[in-house]
Hints:
Layout: H1 5-14, H2 24-41, E1 43-44, E2 49-50, H3 54-63, H4 66-79, E3 83-87, E4 103-107, H5 109-123, H6 131-142, H7 146-149, H8 152-168, H9 170-175, H10 183-198, H11 207-210, E5 220-223, H12 231-244, E6 249-253, E7 259-262, E8 265-274, E9 280-287
Antiparallel strand pairs: 1-2, 3-4, 5-9, 6-7, 7-8, 8-9
Amino acid sequence: MDLTLAERFALISFNSKESEHREVAKQNVLKILAVAVYLEENYNGTADKWNFNEKDIKVAIKKANKKALERTYAERLQNYQLISRVSSLLGCDLYFDKNIKLKTYVSNPKEFDCQLDLLKAEFLEEGPISDESIIMVWLLLESLCFFQVFSLYEQDKITKRITTLRNESTLAKALYPIELRSLWGTVSADFLRMKSHAAATETGKGLNFIFPFFERKQSIFIDTEGYFPNAEMRLKNVLDRISAQGHIYEVLRSGDVPIVKIDNVKYELLPEAIGGYVPIHGVRLRLYNL
């Protein structure tokens, strides 16, 4: 589907964000969505030129009605059948209060992958990069979604292309030096970058759920109905629980430690037993982005 810049950004960035409550991650996304709308409105199609400056971008952020912006783009993508609301994956956690009702956005998996593949095709391969892709990657960086939707390998490759573009592209020279993150956003970005690189080591992988600093969803324990000595049976039990709550999944790797994409996010499912008088068996979900 031929989406606008702001629609493309909303489709990617809304995925896995809470739909009915305020959260830091979503507020940051909405701030950057306001920038995407501003850039669209100031694009000169006749001259094929993006007109912007840092001062006006920050004014656009300040003036934007974030709640109305979310409603507008969520409804638009829903009308396109490109986004839906499902119960939060937290609802599958053993210790989550079932009386708390949380809903999250889930983007259409086919279109979600398509939009990311378009960016990867340009940034990970040799050749020219379109202006819209240059802008989209910058939007994802400033919203912190960059560290969630690209693997560690892809992050490194794209970052190198960004360095080159700063010297070669007139648009990138003007846009990439503009930083819109607050101090908290900068700290968050550094932490997410550190976690991504730490995940490349066996010991570092534990950071993803030992320190679920920004996302409680990074440390979900799903109990199984009983002890399953067979890994296949254990996986089936967990997937049945997930699908019963409306989640979309794809098994990327089976075995003792499966990798499953749930609502467009990749997780490792680590077998675990919580000690007690009667041990509780299940799996711990760990974000996977290698």
